[in-house]
Specification:
With 452 residues, this protein is of the alpha/beta class. It contains 15 helices and 19 strands. The chain has 3 domains: 224 residues, FAD/NAD(P)-binding domain (3-Layer(bba) Sandwich), CATH 3.50.50.60; 99 residues; 75 residues, no CATH class. α1 links the parallel β1 and β2. The radius of gyration is 23 Å and the shape is globular.
Length: 452
């Protein structure tokens, strides 16, 4: 390890600020360089502002950083998916067995501010308005530009950590030195953000403790609650076809789409036209890398290494797990090269697993949650979790309420999904199942579950 145990982090977003805290707590000297201004001074000016779903993996990391209590003061509980059918019916599909198994809606900007505060309190130094322009890896010098006065700053480093998101400048610099095996798969769908304001009495306009979904086959709308009694609404549409962002191009066309397909949501969004025309469409893509580090000189974490689509609510949680894992490997390993290699070996397979599950969850959310066969399998899933808690756990629960490796949850989830398909084949209700056969099949096909 470097004699002075110094790490330079690129990016003071969620992952960068959290990693800085964890390392500073362990006695590392940490400098963080952020291209934007300090959000505590000028207000949050991030990119995507989709509300984030905080789950157990993320909360575990926040507890280690002593930030969980402050974050949870601003979080809103979401017990499950509130599905809005075309005919106006609604159905709450719980995420877990009770209120001990929920997720939390948090505001990206507010969370970033909390994490910056605790990073500085832990001893990390954060430098704002510093955009990474280039890296001389041989000399171990990084060059930054101040966007206020265009001045340049050459900074020596022991090692760089890229926590600068999907468009990572550090990743680009690393790729100029060594092939990282980078590839990006675009989803072919994009999103627009809208807003449901508070009700006239100042309260929530719809059920606050749920993630609302309007599934419509190839497209959907979702709404997540905020602590100021608003909802952040996100419209997901294909880029081509009808409807798509190629056919829904302005506020008038957006209103026509909502009148036809999201009629019960329309009265809740009084500024639909203005929101639609003001807010840009965001792209959705999955970033894959075969290599996350450049020997002992640089390593990537979070979206810089494995950006994913947001449909499992695990992007932030996965990045926070990265931070904990990297801090642990830096503590245990004899040198930086060993630490970075061990971190990649542990986390890359798990990142691939949650990237795949996030893609699958999009199909489920937009096209499955209101299907009869899905609802029957979901009912059986919950019943099996009650009857065989040592062998059967819904994949969503494994991912969201446990901290078992994503790769384990993915493989186990595939086995369980096939079991549900086989057991419900030819049935339209659980009442016609032979439960002795069901129980025997579960014991035969599923081994005991691994636990955290």
């Amino acid at each position: 390890m470097p004699a002075d145990r110094h790490i330079t982090v690129i990016g003071a977003g969620l992952a960068g600020a959290l990693l800085a805290t964890l390392l500073a707590q362990r006695g590392w000297k940490v400098d963080v360089y952020e291209k934007r201004g300090d959000p505590r001074v000028k207000g949050y000016a991030g990119g995507r502002s989709i509300n984030l779903a905080l789950a157990e993996r993320g909360r575990h990391a926040l507890r280690l950083a002593s930030g969980d209590d402050e974050v949870m003061e601003q979080a809103v509980m979401m017990r499950g998916r509130m599905v809005h059918f075309r005919d106006g019916r609604t159905d709450l599909q719980r995420y877990g067995k009770d209120d001990s198994e929920v997720i939390w809606s948090v505001h990206r900007g507010d969370l970033n501010i909390v994490l910056l505060d605790i990073a500085e309190q832990a001893g990390a130094r954060v430098h704002f308005h510093r955009s990474l322009d280039g890296v001389d890896f041989d000399a171990r010098v990084a060059t930054f530009t101040n966007d206020i006065d265009s001045s340049t700053h050459a900074i020596g480093f022991n090692a760089l950590v890229g926590a600068d998101g999907a468009g990572s400048a550090l990743r680009a610099a690393m790729a100029r030195v060594s092939d990282l095996g980078e590839r990006t798969d675009f989803l072919g769908h994009s999103y627009k953000e809208l807003e449901i304001p508070p009700a006239p009495d100042g309260g929530f306009s719809i059920e606050p403790n749920a993630l609302h979904i309007w599934p419509r086959g190839r497209y959907m709308c979702i709404a997540l609650p905020n602590d100021e009694r608003t909802f952040t609404v996100t419209l997901f549409l294909p880029n081509e076809g009808d409807p798509s962002f190629a056919t829904v191009r302005n506020g008038t066309e957006a209103r026509a789409l909502f009148e036809r397909d999201f009629a019960d949501a329309l009265p809740l969004i009084p500024n639909l036209e203005e929101d639609f025309e003001r807010n840009p469409a965001g792209l959705l893509a999955t970033l894959y890398l075969d290599r996350w580090h450049l020997d002992d000189r640089a390593v990537l974490i979070g979206d810089a290494a494995h950006a994913m689509v947001p449909f499992h609510g695990q992007g932030m949680n996965c990045a926070f797990e990265d931070c904990v894992a990297l801090a642990d490997h830096l503590d245990r390993a004899p040198d930086l090269t060993t630490a970075f290699a061990a971190f990649q070996a542990e986390r890359l397979p798990n990142a691939r697993a949650i990237q795949q599950m996030a893609l699958e969850n999009y199909l489920e959310m937009r096209d499955r949650v209101d299907d009869d066969d899905y609802l029957l399998q979901r009912a059986l899933e919950l019943r099996l979790a009650e009857r065989h808690p040592d062998r059967f756990m819904p994949r969503y629960a494994m991912v969201t309420f446990q901290r078992m490796p994503y790769a384990v949850a993915f493989e186990r989830g595939q086995q369980q999904r096939q079991l549900l398909v086989d057991l419900t084949r030819g049935h339209t209700t659980l009442d016609t199942l032979d439960w002795d056969t069901v129980d025997a099949t579960v014991r035969e096909r599923l081994t005991l579950l691994p636990r955290d």
